[in-house]
Amino acid sequence: xxxxxxxxxxxxxxxxxxxxxxxxxxxxxxxxxxxxxxxxxxxxxxxxxxxxxxxxxxxxxxxxxxxxxxxxxxxxxxxxxxxxxxxxxx
Amino acid sequence: xxxxxxxxxxxxxxxxxxxxxxxxxxxxxxxxxxxxxxxxxxxxxxxxxxxxxxxxxxxxxxxxxxxxxxxxxxxxxxxxxxxxxxxxxxxxxxxxxxxxxxxxxxxxxxxxxxxxxxxxxxxxxxxxxxxxxxxxxxxxxxxxxxxxxxxxxxxxxxxxxxxxxxxxxxxxxxxxxxxxxxxxxxxxxxxxxxxxxxxxxxxxxxxxxxxxxxxxxxxxxxxxxxxxxxxxxxxxxxxxxxxxxxxxxxxxxxxxxxxxxxxxxxxxxxxxxxxxxxxxxxxxxxxxxxxxxxxxxxxxxxxxxxxxxxxxxxxxxxxxxxxxxxxxxxxxxxxxxxxxxxxxxxxxxxxxxxxxxxxxxxxxxxxxxxxxxxxxxxxxxxxxxxxxxxxxxxxxxxxxxxxxxxxxxxxxxxxxxxxxxxxxxxxxxxxxxxxxxxxxxxxxxxxxxxxxxxxxxxxxxxxxxxxxxxxxxxxxxxxxxxxxxxxxxxxxxxxxxxxxxxxxxxxxxxxxxxxxxxxxxxxxxxxxxxxxxxxxxxxxxxxxxxxxxxxxxxxxxxxxxxxxxxxxxxxxxxxxxxxxxxxxxxxxxxxxxxxxxxxxxxxxxxxxxxxxxxxxxxxxxxxxxxxxxxxxxxxxxxxxxxxxxxxxxxxxxxxxxxxx
Lengths: 90, 660
Prior knowledge:
The structure holds two protein chains of two kinds.
Chain A: E1 14-16, E2 25-31, H1 36-44, E3 52-58, E4 65-69, E5 72-76, H2 78-81, E6 84-88
Antiparallel strand pairs in A: 1-6, 2-3, 2-6, 3-4, 4-5
Chain B: E1 2-7, H1 13-21, E2 38-41, E3 48-51, H2 63-74, E4 79-85, H3 89-101, E5 106-111, H4 113-118, E6 121-123, H5 125-132, E7 135-138, H6 147-156, H7 170-182, H8 188-197, H9 208-221, H10 225-244, E8 245-247, H11 254-262, H12 268-284, H13 286-312, H14 317-335, H15 338-354, H16 356-370, H17 378-383, H18 388-394, H19 401-410, H20 420-430, H21 435-460, E9 470-472, H22 481-515, H23 530-546, H24 551-558, H25 566-578, H26 598-610, H27 615-625, H28 628-659
Parallel strand pairs in B: 1-3, 1-4, 4-5, 5-7
Antiparallel strand pairs in B: 2-3, 6-8
Helix pairs in contact in B: 3-10, 5-10, 7-8, 7-9, 12-13, 12-15, 12-21, 13-14, 13-15, 14-22, 14-25, 15-22, 18-27, 20-21, 20-26, 22-25, 23-24, 23-28, 24-25, 26-28, 27-28
């Protein structure tokens, strides 16, 4: 597991999707996901480059995280989110 | 005519299927209710319609999704009925654009327009229809609006034969066109895209020529083609969305408000425990126990009445005994648990239809992950409290092979409805006012055992590796009275059918074995019967968990393989035989079973809960695990663990009993 920076990321900064706080929005910059099947699935679910993502809910134990993407809600594990580079919008 | 019904998971396909065909297939509010294709005929026509498992794209990620793609690509279909969830248009249209590439006539049905309306999403049907060049009909499957119109459209053949629209940029479209020329397939557009994506299932269609075109394309883009295609497709959809869909942004929905409570950091897990505790407390505890008593009383009256009637007719003693002590005692013992099973079925059905189950999978995933399972394992575990067979099959939605296999092996540990009679009977008699508590304790005991076994399996069999969890959280829905009623009714029917067939047959066999000796002598002491001698061969296995050698308990426990409730039927027949108590079936008052103490009662419950499931569930495990060897591995693991746990429970419990 990667150590998580506790400070909040601000607008314009680049980071990993897993580092965002509840309520923050970001734009996907790049998918680093190595597992081909998983990456394919993420693409199919609408996580393509440029798409806007909002952190909706965080599970009581901190993982997984529920995001809003293309108007619906999707749960992902933190590890898989750490492979997605984003640019913070708010 | 053959129609395929296809759409995203949880988009309401089965609800529409039921409306179109007038059947009552199971529906729920979690992604992946339908795991096998189902066939039906549209009412008033001879059109065949096939309900396929939900998919997000035609690149399957789990087994049940593969079923859908294989079907669409390989079988002859005249019409695709693509059901689109109006509340998430973009993701739905992603599938729609792929379906259009198959080149099969298609009708798009926009479902859940009413919910979209409430959420401030407005969809311009005319524009959408024009852009996709396909017939679009808005319906509400739940409220039955416009379904009749849909049938009319299908009947009249009044739908557009969609022509292909350019989705991708020129370079890609040119590549697709030249691949189409180089291949011959009914679905050449679809195949061309799959070849460019380098989808592993389609590599066999590659020729030298197509390979070269794809390679050239890849060089031009300098990116992974799979990603290029997904990006382009979504860009195309975003354009359509901008023209045809207007939506209010950032609203706080009811779902968000409910989730603020149910997914709260501190309350989520306690609330879940209270819910599960409540279900078992209600079903197996005082209320369930009370109803069992009432039905039991009427069963006893019926039993006496039948006996008198038969004797009045001058029936021979053995035939009276067959009917009363065999058939009625066995089947009656099971049927008296029906009211409490209705309570259980009802509560589980409510849990399934509201959308809470996906939430539980979401917040428990972290814990499940630790022991090598997925949050999605929870869905089979909850369905398993009804019956293991559909639960084992629902594990198909878990895409990771190891997690899936472990889930299949562990699902039978959950107390299913057939085990509930065992729990109610023992807990009600030995723990009286605490019976509800004890019943619920067994559920949590089962969860503990599941975690423990998962850890053991992870350590020794399945070495840890990383896996993923991708789950859509559906909106909360109010349970539909109609569906819940159907669902409960179906399960009740199945239970009665089982009692009237398998249990009846097994009861007759047990009656025969206990009525006769090896020399086929009738009217003997039950201790001299064939059944007793068989039981005595097995009794030593159960000695360490019962503290005594009991042929009756041994021979009954083995019958759990037939069906778990058969254990109770068997005990009822044996006890009814040993004593001539006509006032109800007082199982524990009879000399055969009077040895039970709270410790051995709990141990016996534990053994029957965790040992090999019934043959139906074993067959389901065999099918889903893929090999007989893996199935035996599972059965032996389960039975071995059950024995160890039962012995531990008895030995510790007995120690406490002695000290107190």
